[in-house]
Amino acid sequence: MSYRNRTLSEKKRIYQKLGLVIAAILVVCIALAIALRPTKGNASHNASGTQAVEGMIEVDGVKYVPKKNIETYLFMGIDNMGKVQKVTDYEGAGRCDVVMLMVRDLTDGTYKTLSIDRNTIVEQDTLDPDGTYVATSPAQLALAHENGDGMEISCENVVKAVSNFLGGQKIDGYAAVNMGAIGTINNLAGGVTVTIEDDFSKVDKTMKQGETITLTDEQAVHFIHDRFDVGDESNTQRMKRQEVYKAGLKDNLAAKCSEDNTYPLTIYDALGDYMVTDISSQKFSKLALLVLKEKDAGTVSIAGTETVDDLGFVEVEPDADSLQQAIVELFYKEYN
């Protein structure tokens, strides 16, 4: 049985037996983190006479400094069709099927989004449901939410894992929505129109490949959530569908919000039973209206190598160069 499918008690015994191995892994990870960490300190001059500023990094001979006027929000889609509830069982919190980061650049009124594959291997904490720390180890990002209470503890564990994965970048807020809310969201948007590019015949024969349709609430669940028995069954293809849906959803909600600037509050209230967030209703409303007006500067991605373990579970090892490029694009600007 793989580590990811063991019970919490079994994991604890593994940690006790393999403490030295885990320690060695952590030493390597810490060394890598130090190597990739941006240089900090007061302004100074290097050997070549070039002025160095706080947080400056150099990539392929080009110097970059942190963007100062940005806001970063993490959005999670949790593989749980029910309403949110606090759990006491380790397996009951649900996993992240969708992990999306939005970075707003307030200087030029733009935003970019980063979708992180749920199968990406990241350093994360293993926790008891009450939040008690057990250990830190590499595992699929999807599992970070499963470690915790299904509420704030789980969400904060994902936030920490994503922040560390991106070199310690600050995340200003989060919202985790159970997949059971997909129908509600689709209904609020009046249905999202998409072209069916994958074969859905095994899950819904009305979703015919090649046709452009306005998704019913039930079809929206299949389009966004389903992976098995759909197309090539890959999470990569599902992420592409989610990007398509996101674009259509934004257009529909933008139209509704232009007619009624209180509509974001309607969305917030409708999601209440399915959402855990540290963003207040007022902040959510303001953020939604601002994003709808701001320019979408595109989607950033991180390349990785996909492998399958002995039990058939997919793991994605992120490419170090691609990860660094994504961090630079989202959080840094070229130093002039």
UniProtKB/TrEMBL annotation:
Any Pfam family the entry gives: LytR_cpsA_psr
Domain of life: Bacteria
Domain Cell envelope-related transcriptional attenuator: residue ranges: 95-244
InterPro entries named in the record: LytR/CpsA/Psr_CW_biosynth (IPR050922), LytR_CpsA_psr (IPR004474)
PANTHER family in the cross-refs: POLYISOPRENYL-TEICHOIC ACID--PEPTIDOGLYCAN TEICHOIC ACID TRANSFERASE TAGU
Family the UniProt entry places it in: Belongs to the LytR/CpsA/Psr (LCP) family.
Protein's name according to its UniProt entry: LCP family protein
Organism: Coprococcus aceti
Organismal lineage: Bacteria, Bacillati, Bacillota, Clostridia, Lachnospirales
